[in-house]
Write a structure and sequence with these properties.
68% helix; binds zinc ion; 14 helices
Length: 375
Amino acid sequence: MYRIPFDRVNWVTSSFLIGTALIALIGVPIYLVKFGLDWFQFAMFFFYVTATMMSITVGYHRLFSHLSFKAKLPVKLFTLIFGACAFENSCLNWASDHRRHHKHVDHDEDPYDISKGFFWAHIGWLLFKLNPEPPMDNVADLRKDKLVMWQHHYVHWIGLVVGLMIPPLLGYLYNANIGLDPWTGALGGFLIAGVARVVVAQHCTFFINSLCHTVGRQPYSTSHSARDSAVMAFLTFGEGYHNYHHEFQHDYRNGVKPWQWDPSKWTIWTLSKLGLVDGLRRVPDGRILLAEMGEARRKAQKELAQVQEKTKTAACQRAADSLHEIVEKLSANYHELEKAVADRVQVSREAMNAWQNETRQLMRDFRRTSAMLAA
Ligand SMILES: [Zn+2]
Ligand SMILES: [Zn+2]
């Protein structure tokens, strides 16, 4: 029978996570029914949820954990202050966990290892401490950053003041200014832009560790559980292209295609145009395409091996032969691009598009033939 390991419960974190969720789920609907929602409360919620999530994705994640670009003081300060408001611990702690997640993904040392189950990856790893706390020996670079260390020491105070005290204060002042009951405004600010926003931001972040390792496609690699999903990208400010991210973690983009929903990448790019960040790291297009073509080829090879095992009749043999031909073509293209990338030959955009389209067409042919065989 399933037993809750009470001796391993992380009581402070658990009380906070469950307490804030209960306040949000019970308090917010009662408040809305009683007082309604005015535009100011909504605007505050919108600002806070965006600032908090962006500070996690742009700051904690892409800047501090992966060093995918360099930032000037205002960007660092903003993301460290509003990152603290997410109540996901200090940037130093967060980056240490996250770097371990990438290094040991899907294995025991991965703090939010999806192979321990969806619940564990989402929130269980915070509620229970099943392993001894690992040493934070992978963030020596961040320890040299005075701002990061300042945030590390005062993270809970910053979160409390900026994340949970300023919204009620602003709600109070706004209502007082327009002649409404100021305490109603304060309560609304606390419940909506304060507590409910923390809960929303936290679960959107947790989704990256749970759903982004469960739902979606794996166009770049199946060697880890991370997946690409546009729906998840929408819920996570662009972090849903997680298969790409695990393959190329130092790229400042997660949604690498121009049309992919990634507000965090657009923000970083815009900040670079404003001179507030620089040194944006991008994986060359040839290497990205090579990963895609390599993965297509691996999938086709695997399926071909399964088909060949079952082939009995002459008609099946003919179909298997044409599948084999497709795999050969995929391999030939792959090796050609691999050589070009290794020799650092400049491959034109047209040539890359042609390769990409051919790979897609070959994979469509492959699936059609293999579906015919299965029927
Ligand atoms: Zn991941
Ligand atoms: Zn990452």
